[in-house]
Amino acid sequence: SKTAESQFREIQRWLNVVDPATNFSSALAVREPGTGNWLLEGRDYMDWKEGSGGVLWLHGIPRCGKSVLSATAIEDVKRLCSMSDDHALAYFYFTFSDSQKQNLANMLLSLIGQLLRARSDPVLPDEIMKLYHNSKAIGTSSSIKDLQTVFSHITKLSKKTFIILDALDEFPKDTRGSVLSWIGALMTDHDAGSLSMLVTSRPEADIVKSLEPLTNFSISLQSKIIDPDIRVYIQNSLDSKDGFKEFTNEIRSEIEDTLVTHSQGMYANTRSDMFRFRWVDCLLRILQECMTPKAVRGALKELPKDLDSVYSRILESIHKPQREYIQCAMHWLSFSAVPLTLAELAEAV
């Protein structure tokens, strides 16, 4: 009936208090095609997804690509769930930049809403109806305990439920114990294989202490493990950029192997894979200008050791008449009170 449909939409709006899909889309937008396959094809991930389930914990320092990997996993599990009516997925992104996404109640409401939308049965479970009407009647938010109880019930309506939580370390530290306790209770409350939870975070002490005893699979995102993604990024660039089209396979292999190896040193200096990718990207721009194999090999022997050196070399390569405009543009970008569009920047310089 129209009344039932209207109520269903109203309850969905109540549950969808925050939308993690925006974070998911943002993470996918910066992912290089073909990267992350080492995770999806790894034994731990495959067993987590299709076998024993439990907790898979991806941990690493800031800017090592955790959010992009969680988005890769979400996309992969979505495909699996689309082929299996008895499988369901819900995910959530904690973030420093949005207080609404540092809230346990909001997380639970969002996860419940996602799992309900995944169901083929349009009838809302009685537990949801009761929770909604009680909340509406007293005019306040539902208690955390009630939300946890309903969430646990909803997860058991599917043969297999996947929960993916990104950036747990961005949940406020003084109340993070509530999330960690909930994860422990949830895993205890489910049969082996019926619930698979993927968590990404920095390896902070309280998280390590709580997750290590629960974790079936643990992956530390160190430099070597990201090497396949660096290699894919270089291969994609060599295939797609015009400046590399005339390079022989021998030269392309030399570029690939040299940049992968030297970028490990970049990681050692910065402890950041984001800077590793940036360093490789800048070096590819420099190599693209080389006209002969001899010039390429010469450039590969004199690779800058850090990003500052790379940027200096790029700036030195700019023709003198253009330097004044580049300097002016950089001043505008650095000191503008608000972000400038390309058109505004062009007018300013």
TrEMBL record:
Q: Does Repeat show up as a keyword for this record?
A: yes
Q: Give the highest taxon in the source lineage.
A: Eukaryota
Q: Which UniProt keywords apply?
A: Repeat
SUPFAM superfamilies the UniProt entry points to:
P-loop containing nucleoside triphosphate hydrolases
Domain Nephrocystin 3-like N-terminal, which positions?
34-202
Q: Is Nucleotide-binding set as a keyword in this record? A: no
Q: Report what the protein is called.
A: Nephrocystin 3-like N-terminal domain-containing protein
Q: Which organism is it from?
A: Tuber aestivum
